[in-house]
Amino acid sequence: MDSVFDHAIRLGDDALILGQRLSEWCGHAPMLEVDLALANIALDLTGQATLFLALAAEEEGRGRDADALAFRRDVLDFRNCLIVEQPNGDFAQTIARQFLFSNWQELLLAEIAEAPAPALAAIAAKAVKEVRYHVRYASEWVVRLGDGTQESRGRMSDGLDWMWRFVEELFDAVDGAASLRPAWEARIAATLRAAGLERPRPMRPILGGRKGHHSEHLGHLLCEMQFLQRTYPGATW
Amino acid sequence: MVKTAIRADEVFAILQQVHDPEIPVLSVVDLGIVREVRDDAVAITPTYSGCPATLVIEQAIRQALDAAGLQKMRIETVLFPPWTTDWITAEGHRKLEAYGIAPPQPSGAVLCPRCGSAQARLVSEFGSTPCKALYRCGACGEPFDRFKCH
After folding, report:
1. What is the mean pLDDT of each run of 10 residues along chain B (150 residues)?
2. Do B126 and A36 touch (CB under 8 A)?
3. Does the predicted interface ipTM exceed a cut of 0.85?
4. CB distance A48–B127 less than 8 Å?
5. A-B contacts (CB, under 8 Å)
6. Taking CA A98 as the corner, what is the angle to CA A97 and CA A101, rounded to the nearest 5 degrees?
7. Which among B144, B130, B116, B19 is positioned nearest to B85, based on CA atoms?
8. How many CB atoms lie within 10 A of CB B44?
9. Which of A135, B4, B32, B89 is the most exposed place for a label (fewest CB within 10 A)?
10. End-to-end distance of chain A based on CA atoms, in angstroms?
11. What residue in B sits closest to A113 (Cα-Cα)?
């Protein structure tokens, strides 16, 4: 049985790492509206991470706070799933990641919001309202790109193919997550149908993020994200 | 001077003077984030998890309370129930509209704050702040922000 700390650190790390990844688009997105949207989604996720990690720190009771957990933990101590740490790739790959992850995150948060741990439920009830926007945004882009030109369709399809190997992990090693699978599959199928895209072929899943076995990408991400607090511990401005 | 006793309506009057840094036409009371005033504490509920204004709002409330001699009054953050746009007051709706931001209608209707037309088109789900979406009026052509129903 997972503790509140286990749940909070996983939810917090998922949100933190994806928020950081999406921030890399700031100033680089294909158009201004997309730039604003991705930065807004990143902001929501970073805010959720702050709340979940603050709760994890409190549960841990070792005098660390949310910032200490975010900026002074090493890569092996992170418990995020692997999909969130994957590089942005092109815009379609970023959208594929968001589409697969946000659909899962919304279902999970909705369940946690009803669960008996009141502190987790309060954060989840707030976050789920934000994630609904992320789901809608990503799903609309999956349809737009899938149902667009030959080029956009090919890229969307490639993006989904690339991210698909990290799907299995979302339903593995988290209490209750396996039961979300049918609802998640139904949502994904409906959007792919509207986009005229095929469900990617089954492939060998890659697992391990929840145990701290990460891809090489996470270390590079942390290097950039943690640099300032590592160099000037406790710096504020 | 440090005050020891104050009525809740007096505290609300003080907080009516504290404005949202990103939508300065609204006070924190209009926005509905002040949930409760007790003898020793003010309870506030943040709008969005990642709203950068949250910290600034808390600091502004602190300053206003201190300036009124209420240094001992604490500020509590309450996450549940989550903030909803239904908590924006009628006064808040009027102020938003006058400021050029379409207020959140429970019906989902989006009316151009300039000409009142219902022929608005969504440009982007995400606008200049987490709480707003970008629209353009089909009648007068005006681009405008709409406070999202949340």
Report:
1. 73 95 93 93 91 88 95 93 94 94 88 92 86 92 90
2. yes
3. no
4. no
5. 66
6. 80
7. B130
8. 22
9. B4
10. 40
11. B80
